[in-house]
Amino acid sequence: MPLPDALKGQLSIPAISAPMFLCSGPDLVVETCRSGVIGSFPALNQRTTEGYRDWLKDIQKRLDVIRQQAGNPVAPFAVNLVVHRSNPRLEADLAVTVEQKVPIVITSLGANDKVVEAVHAYGGLVFHDVINIRHARKAVEAGVDGIIAVCSGAGGHASTLSAFALVPEIRQIFAGTIILGGALSTGRHIAVARMLGADLAYIGTRFLATRECLAPEAQKEMICASQASDIMYTPAISGVDGNFLRDSIRAAGIDPDDLTKPEGYNFGTSEVKAWKTVWAAGQGVGSIVDVPGAADLCRRLGEEYRTAIAETATWT
After folding, report:
1. What DSSP state is assigned to residue 12?
2. Running DSSP on this structure, what letter comes out for residue 261?
3. Given this model, what pLDDT does residue 268 score?
4. What's the start-to-end Cα distance of the chain, in Å?
5. What is the pTM of this model?
6. d(CA 154, CA 180)
7. Could you read off the pLDDT of 145-192 as tens digits, one per residue?
8. What SS3 class is residue 56?
9. Euclidean distance between CA atoms 149 and 157, whole angstroms
10. Which CATH architecture has domain 5-215+283-313?
């Protein structure tokens, strides 16, 4: 299974801490990268492009210090850029991304060959998230290095397709890196992703419940108390189908059984307000019962992953 040369020897486990809107920040990115897991954050988590540049410089500086001191692999980090006409900051944020030479760019809501060309020009990688094979074909045409299969059960915007269906279909048309997301919360889940044919696991909700995450404590507590049956799949929060905590919808004063889909998709104040009061989460919440530090979580995932791989080696 293919892994870009830039990632070989840099990871302790084949995993990415997925970019989480309003929740991923520099501390979470640095701690996951320190532990050999790709850390990431959405550019829009900073309110301005200048603030985005400041975060990039801070992360780069801290990781450079760690690389000089650590004997273990320090993973590269990634930034999520929303490639959609309703994102007014795309052009400015892309310019800063190129200026700071972000190692990995994760694009969402639109496969844009111009973005791919700009990132490739300085040697960066582009991974694009998709929810179906049609979107995957567009990503292949745009020249991306990796395709993220955001399958059923993933937090936030997600597909209804099973990983057992989508990953093999993507592999039929794409020889590059495949990343699998969707209800992955443990090291055993990472091993399953690899056995299914993915090169990397894409883990979001599990990293929501970490000390470094920017999510409010109430959100972390709700995640730890929830089961898969507490996750609601609806387009009514952002205009795009996604998975959210039903109790957070109710706590926001909205009847989860009487929702109206908003008109269009907006990355302005209304979008931020919606995600602040209604919390995204994946169906893997039932495997989450604590709020560790990100480094401790990465170590745990690594131990679980290696145990699962060793166990499969004994099968006959």
Report:
1. S
2. P
3. 45
4. 23
5. 0.94
6. 10
7. 999 999 999 999 899 999 999 999 999 999 999 999 999 999 999 999
8. helix
9. 12
10. Alpha-Beta Barrel (3.20)
Which segment of 26-40, 45-59, 71-85, 291-305 scores lowest on mean pLDDT? 71-85
Contact 28, 210 (CB under 8 A): yes
d(C-alpha 285, C-alpha 206), whole Å:
7
Neighbouring-strand partners of residue 42: 80
CB of 197 closer than 8 Å to CB of 166: no
133-140 contacts, C-beta under 8 A, 24 or more apart: 133/166, 133/169, 133/170, 133/173, 135/111, 136/169, 136/170, 136/173, 136/174, 137/173, 138/111, 139/111, 139/174, 140/173, 140/174
- For 111-174, the DSSP string reads --HHHHHHHHHTT-EEEEEESSHHHHHHHHHHT-SEEEEE-TT-SEE--SS-HHHHHHHHHHH-
Q: Compute the distance between CA of residue 21 and CA of residue 282 in angstroms, rounded to an integer.
A: 14
State yes or no: pLDDT of 271 exceeds 60: no
Which range, of 228-232, 258-262, 269-273, 309-313, averages the lowest pLDDT?
Answer: 269-273
Q: Which residue has tokens 């926001």?
A: 252
How many DSSP H helices and E strands does the chain contain?
12, 11
pLDDT the model gives residue 269: 43
Q: Which among 226, 222, 316, 229 has a CA at the least distance from the CA of 277?
A: 222
Domain boundaries, the chain: 5-215+283-313
